[in-house]
C-alpha cells in the first residue's frame, strides 16, 4: 500500500510539474495523495463534485482528484456544504488543478433540501 501511495504521489507531482505549478493551492497547502481511485471520467461531459468548504476553498484532496484525471473539455459543477459562507475562492483554487475544464459554482446545500430540489439542481446541468 505504501508503494501504491508513493506511485500516486509521483503521478500527482509529475502532472503538477508538467504544468509548471507548485503543487499547492493559493494558500500553499499540499495536495494529499489519493490511494484508491477507479473512477472513469472519460465517458462523462458534466461531472458533479461535492465537498465541505474549508477555509473558503475546497479541501485540497479535491485538487488531487482533479490532477490525476483528464478533465480537459469537461464541465465540472460544484456543490458544497458550509458553516454559512459561500464558495469563496473554491473555483479559482480548483481551476489550477484542471485548467482546461469549465468549473461552475453550483449550489451550497446547507439546511434542508427536498429530493425534488436536489433533483432539480442536477437536472439544470445535464
Ligand atoms: C478545517 C475547516 C475549515 C472550515 N472552513 C469553513 C469556511 O471557510 N466557511 C464555512 O462556511 N465553513 C467552514 N467550515 C465548516 C464546514 O464547511 C462545515 O462544517 C461542513 O460543510 C459541514 O459538513 P459536515 O457536517 O460533514 O462537517 C470549515 C470546517 C473545517 C473543519
In short:
The protein contains 4 helices and 3 strands. The chain has helices spanning 2-18, 60-67, 90-95, 115-123; strands at residues 46-52, 75-81, 102-108.
Description of the structure:
The structure is a single chain. This protein has a domain of 85 residues: Flavodoxin domain (Rossmann fold), CATH 3.40.50. The chain has 126 residues and is of the alpha/beta class. It starts with a helix and ends with a helix. Strands 1-2-3 form a 3-stranded parallel β-sheet. The chain contains 4 helices and 3 strands; from the N terminus they run αβαβαβα. 32% of the residues lie in helices and 17% in strands. Flavin mononucleotide binds next to loops.
What is the number of strand segments?
3
Average residue-wise pLDDT = 84
Please give the CATH architecture of the domain at 42-126. 3-Layer(aba) Sandwich
Strand content: 15-25%
- Uncertain runs are 1-24
Amino acid at each position: 500500500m505504501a508503494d501504491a501511495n508513493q506511485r500516486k504521489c509521483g503521478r500527482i507531482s509529475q502532472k503538477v510539474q508538467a504544468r509548471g505549478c507548485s503543487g499547492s493551492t493559493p494558500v500553499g497547502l499540499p495536495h494529499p495523495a489519493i490511494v484508491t481511485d477507479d473512477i472513469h471520467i472519460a465517458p462523462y461531459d458534466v461531472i458533479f463534485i461535492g465537498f465541505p468548504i474549508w477555509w473558503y476553498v475546497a479541501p485540497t484532496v479535491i485538487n488531487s482528484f482533479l490532477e490525476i484525471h483528464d478533465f480537459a473539455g469537461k464541465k465540472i459543477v460544484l456543490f458544497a456544504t458550509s458553516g454559512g459562507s459561500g464558495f469563496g475562492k473554491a473555483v479559482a483554487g480548483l481551476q489550477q488543478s484542471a485548467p482546461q475544464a469549465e468549473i461552475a459554482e453550483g449550489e451550497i446545500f446547507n439546511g434542508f433540501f427536498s429530493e425534488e430540489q436536489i433533483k432539480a439542481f442536477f437536472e439544470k446541468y445535464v
